TrEMBL record:
Alphabetical list of SMART domains matching this protein: DEXDc, HELICc
Predominant cellular place of this UniProt entry's protein: nucleus
Secreted listed as a keyword: no
The organism of origin for this protein: Micromonas commoda (strain RCC299 / NOUM17 / CCMP2709)
Protein name, as recorded: ATP-dependent DNA helicase
Residue intervals of the Helicase ATP-binding domain: 1-182
GO process terms (BP): double-strand break repair via homologous recombination
Family according to the record: Belongs to the helicase family. RecQ subfamily.
Amino acid sequence: QGRDCLATLPTGFGKSMVYQLPAMWREEMDRPGVTVVVTPLLSLLRDQLRGCEDLDLNAAAWCGTADKRDTERIDRDLRLDADDGGPGIRLLYTTPESLGSNARLRDALRACARNGFLTSIAVDEAHCVASWGHDFRPAYLALKDFRDDVVGPGVPFQALTATATPRVKEQIVSALGLRDPALIATSLNRRNLRYEDVALAHLAAMAKETKERWPGSAGIVYARTRAECERLAALLQDKHDVDCEVFHAGRTGEALARTQGNWAGGDVHCVVATVAFGMGVDKADVRFVAHWGPPTTLEGLYQESGRAGRDSNPARCVMYVGSNELDELRKVTGGGGDAHAAVDAYARGVSRCRRVGLLEHFGERRAGGCGEGEERCDVC
């Protein structure tokens, strides 16, 4: 129908198929058309490209790390008109910064739109527009101007996310300038995940649980800082014989890619990471996700816990937390606010279903606690 849309779908749902399926159809029918996919992380971009290769789907990437020869090839392809058969690329992955500042990319997309071959703009992980755009990724807020100045109103926007509260949805619609968008949503409930809060105990307890309860299974342990990641990984590896590696922004790109590859391939049991190891991590058989200390938001807790159980088999999502850590988080976040209050209420709650608490945070109401066919949380 050519309408803008905002799709709120749970982690592990397969949101990328929203733009990949039409591209696959165009490829099969030999019909030219390009969808631009805006992604927040280069690691996510690379994972998506690998997935397109597996699907024999003609996809390309134009970002700050792209090779000059690749961008020249993409530039020529995007400018092909109907007499030349139109562009061969079906999906073009990029970042908000590249769309906002790369004049050559903008000119090529303007030509593609003018020739009638720019089919849509997909903004993946669209909650970043609200959570990052006002702080350290202002290029997100320029996406509306990109539409107005470069591609025109006839090219629809698709905003896709798993972690948007009702307020964040309003912010996404406003920031992207979505016009009468179709609002598509399913329940964010992940029935196969068991949510637990555990008192922050000695690290040995977590190490023992990691080895005994999840032997040979893939898992992630999240910590808030790089230093804490290094400390936890060293203790788990050296003192408790847990096979793990660290992942945070202080390591080189080559080291991060190697760690992610080792973990995805099953050579490493556990990754100890900051939130840098979040969006775009797509491994089916992750059996546990642990947070060592509270995350800064419930959105983060849901997003990061959502790395678990993507094969639909049971998985556990554990937050190790104590009162001291919650008080420290209040200081780190500048005195609290709504985000801290939500995490605090979730973590300290001893009588309210964890699943219900998470779902209601995103505006999804339900009666009772964990139900039939759902992994029961520690409260239920």
